[in-house]
Each structure stands twice: as structure tokens, then as C-alpha cells.
Amino acid sequence: MPATRVTAPPVETAARSGPGTVAALAAACHPLPAAAVTLFTAGLAAACGRGAAGSAASAAAVALGQLSVGWSNDRADLRRDRVTGRRDKPLAAGAVAPAAVSAAAIAALALCVPLSLASGWLAGAVHLCAVAAAWAYNLRLKSTLASWLPYALAFGLLPAFVTLGLPGRPWPPLWLAAAAALLGAGAHFANVLPDIADDLATGVTGLPQRLGGRRSAALAALLVLGSAVALVLGPPGPVAPYGWGLLALTAAVLLATGRARGRAPFLGTLAVAAADVTLLLARGAGIA
After folding, report:
1. % of residues, the chain, pLDDT over 70
2. Residue among 38, 97, 100, 99 nearest 67 (CA)
3. How far apart are CA 287 and CA 280, in angstroms?
4. Which of 31, 72, 123, 226 can pair with 119 through a Cys bridge, CB separation 3.0 to 4.6 Å?
5. What is the phi/psi pair of residue 89, to 5°?
6. How many CA atoms lie within 13 A of 155 on its CB side?
7. What CA–CA distance (Å, rounded) separates 208 from 202?
8. Distance (Å, whole) CA 96 – CA 134
9. Higher pLDDT, 3 or 193
10. What span, in angstroms and rounded, lies between the C-alpha atoms of 282 and 288?
């Protein structure tokens, strides 16, 4: 399908001011995944025993990192979003100026550094590596065969950011890091599904675009299911009934959303992530 051009203000449009800009910036930061990752971190921190202050600090650092990633993503994709007529994106629709989005992304990234290091230098360095991986995806890797790698790396490092902030700076168990990495990779494939045609029309040829929608949807489901399996079967000891319940719920959600169009597969992945956090909270601080 040929790409459709839209009439939109040029990139040099002056930044707007007032409540409209704030609302447009809020919509341009990819609020749903940003909120989901932040809540995932807060839940994991509470489950690991970081306490109220530690959980709030880690969640704030992740929130700022997510804001910087979301804004930099829309800024990097501006030309492609205009070409494909993405009126749902405030920047491409002209609701906010590119300079404002760029400034917001840089400010969020700058604030993310001290907040990440507040959990300790090692934990902070791990989180900043995760944020750097996400920025690398936005700026270059999304159009390569390694498009899945930043997602897997960034999600896989989140448990380490949380547990390294505990006394003694323990690393998370391998099963937890693996579950997070698989979930992140699955989220990548599920998130890209609605945009594959537009991506190909504008030269974005990451792994999901090369595999196509059907195979990418199947791979997304397998990765998310693998994440749930690692979370349930990874810890030592017998599997509790709620663990089997999580596997059943994951399979049901994936079956219900796997063949759906639009954002349903990605929303299904977020639902599985919420169930994962519930399972971690049920297990308590022993997971660290």
C-alpha cells in the first residue's frame, strides 16, 4: 500500500505554550507502556523488600527513563509518522513542536541519572544501561535484525536495578531476569504488529517487519508464554496453585488476543505483566 502524505506543520514550527503543550507532551510520551513499566518496577521493588522510600525512588527513576524514551521515540519517528499520516501522535499532528519534545526528552534523561544513582552506583549504572539500550533502539536498532535486543536487555536489567538497591547489593535470580527479558522481547513483537505495513513503507525493517505479522504474532505469544513459564517454574520448590493459575491465565489471554488486530496483542501482554507482578507480590521478599 502506498504511503499517504498528510498536511502538517513543518519540523521548524515554533513551540507552543500553555496547557495544550502539556497535554500534547503527556500524550507523546507513550503513556500506557510508560505507566505499565513504572508500575511493574514499583511492584517488583515492593516484592523484593525495598520499602516505601526505595520503591518510590526506583519507580521515579524508571518513570523518568520511560518518559525520555517515549519522547525520543516520537521525535526520531517524526518524518515517518508524518508520511504515514499518524494523526494519533501529537508531534506528527502538529499539536506540539519538535523542539519541545526534544527538550522534554533531554530533561527527563538528565533527571533520570541522579534518581537512578540514588539506589546506589551499581544499581544506577544498570538502569542507565537499560535506558541507553532503549535510546539505541529509537535512534538506530529498530531498523535492524537486532531490534528485539534492546527490549530484552532493558527489561532483563530491571530486576537487577531493583535488587541491587537492597542491602548487600544482591543480583536477582536468573529465572527472574530471564522472565523479564522474555516479556520485553515479546512486548516488542506485539507492539510492532499494528504498524508493520507503515514501517515497511518508510524503511523500518526490524526483525518483526521482516518476519511479517503472522509469524511475529506467534513469536510474541511464545515469548510471553516463556516468560510466564520461567516465572512459575524457575524458583526452587513446588509450584503453588496460583503459579499454575498464572500459566492458565497467560495461555487464555494469548489465545484471546493472538489473532486480534490493532493493539489487542500488546494490551494482552500488559495484562500478563500485571499478573506477573501479582505473582511476585505473593512470593514476597524471598525472590531477591
Report:
1. 89
2. 38
3. 8
4. 123
5. -100, 120
6. 26
7. 15
8. 23
9. 193
10. 13
Instruction: Quote the cell numbers at residue 273.
Output: 505483566
**Spatial contact of 232 and 275, defined as CB atoms under 8 Å apart:** no
CA distance 24 to 75: 13
Q: What is the pLDDT of residue 112?
A: 98
**Can you tell me the distance from the alpha carbon of 55 to that of 49, in angstroms, rounded to the nearest whole number?**
8
* Position 288 confidence tier, pLDDT thresholds 50, 70, 90: low
Closest to 132 in 3D by CA, of 102, 112, 103, 104 = 112
Q: Taking the alpha carbons of 162, 164, 170, 176 in that order, is the dihedral positive or negative?
A: positive
Question: Cβ atoms within 10 A of the Cβ of 245, count?
Answer: 13
Residue type, 65: G
Q: Is the pLDDT of residue 38 over 50?
A: yes
Report the amino acid identity of residue 279.
L
Grid coordinates representing 80 are 515517518
Q: Is 110 exposed, middle or buried (0-12, 13-18, 19+ CB in 10 A)?
A: exposed
Distances (CA, A) of 242 to 25, 172, 238, 281: 40, 22, 12, 12
C-alpha 43/C-alpha 51 separation (Å) is 11
Query: Is residue 227 within 8 Å of 31, Cβ to Cβ?
Result: no
Task: Give the mean pLDDT of 210-233.
Answer: 90
Report the number of secondary-structure helices (H) and strands (E) in the chain.
14, 0
Burial class of residue 255 (count of CB atoms within 10 Å of its CB; 0-12, 13-18, 19+) = exposed
What's the full length of the chain, in residues?
288
| pTM listed for this prediction | 0.86
